[in-house]
Amino acid sequence: MGCKKLEGEEILKKWRKIRPKERFPITVILDNIRSAYNVGSIFRTAECAYISKLILCGITPYPPHPKLEKTALGTTNLIPWIYFEKTVEAIKVLKKEGFKVAVLEITKQSIPIQKIKPEDFPLALVIGNEVTGVDEEVFAEADLIIEIPLYGEKESLNVAVAFGVAIFGLIERLF
Amino acid sequence: MGCKKLEGEEILKKWRKIRPKERFPITVILDNIRSAYNVGSIFRTAECAYISKLILCGITPYPPHPKLEKTALGTTNLIPWIYFEKTVEAIKVLKKEGFKVAVLEITKQSIPIQKIKPEDFPLALVIGNEVTGVDEEVFAEADLIIEIPLYGEKESLNVAVAFGVAIFGLIERLF
């Protein structure tokens, strides 16, 4: 095809064309994520997805934090974020503000992301710990449990990758 | 909701139910990816997505490799892979086998992943270097250039996250 790659200012111009006037009506709750690298990566992806807010809960590392900044690549100042000690408290605040709460996890009740409808927004997406997942008391507050359909033999996705797949899948449901 | 999380064998059962009889008709070409951690993460995601094959080219690290195995989490034996010194040679082989070649990159000509149609498969997805992207000679062989629509102010996605978003977005186009 011999096409030219876009660089710097050109990429910015292309992005500006498709950026919506307001941030997408999705807030993401990180429930006791362990790895600062994963949290930094989630900041970077969240900025690209132009979501409303990140809420970091429990043991989740938060800025300023050298390891987190390493993978966030300068995005911690570009996306609104807040820290809550208890995930359930954050969820209760969002529910009062009219958010539906969706936990990302594979369970008997979980539905594929593709089944989310425009009326499910504003949506609070809860992402659980890398090993133990989301706490039972958080499940008890959830309106929906959603999953990324996986087709392999054995493994699960890395939490930062799963977040990326989920968030861009959810944004698609808004159009 | 108080639902129970699935564990171990239960998760496997759920996955087996939705696993297709054959791997999805997507082969992924890694064109000079630098980081072994990113490559390992791509192996892990590729296994979950049940794609046909990974082709590792140029400087891309390949198994056995300790850093790669660390993020691949045991998936390097679960997904067919092969190494080619030259990316363009791999592309030529796949084209002879009837694959359409799609480069993942933001350019003036790129179309959103969502525009890929079932008739574009079998598809070879080319993922470029973390900093320099895909080589010009690879672009010259591409049938399509696809992009993940990004809405943020500044940054781009990490290559392993971008791969995850792209591959699950492509699989959705098959249904």
Question: What do you see in this structure?
Answer:
2 copies of one chain form a homodimer. Chain A is an alpha/beta fold and 175 residues long. Chain A has a single domain (33-172), classed as SPOUT methyltransferase, trefoil knot domain (Alpha/beta knot), CATH 3.40.1280. Chain A is 34% helix and 20% strand. The first copy, chain A, is built from 6 helices and 7 strands; from the N terminus they run αβαβαβαβββαβα. Chain A has helices at residues 8-18, 36-49, 66-72, 87-96, 136-139, 159-172, and strands at residues 24-31, 51-57, 81-84, 100-104, 111-112, 123-127, 144-147. A 7-stranded parallel sheet of chain A has the order 3-2-1-6-4-7-5, sandwiched between helices. In chain A, helix 2 (36-49) links the parallel strand 1 (24-31) and strand 2. In chain A, helix 2 (36-49) packs parallel to helix 3 (66-72). The radius of gyration of chain A is 16 Å and the shape is globular. The mean pLDDT of chain A is 91.
What brief labels describe this structure?
homodimer, 175 residues, alpha/beta, Alpha/beta knot, seven-stranded parallel beta sheet, 6 helices, 7 strands
Summarize the SSE layout with pairings.
The structure is a homodimer of 175-residue chains.
Chain A: H1 8-18, E1 24-31, H2 36-49, E2 51-57, H3 66-72, E3 81-84, H4 87-96, E4 100-104, E5 111-112, E6 123-127, H5 136-139, E7 144-147, H6 159-172
Parallel strand pairs in A: 1-2, 1-6, 2-3, 4-6, 4-7, 5-7
Helix pairs in contact in A: 2-3, 2-6
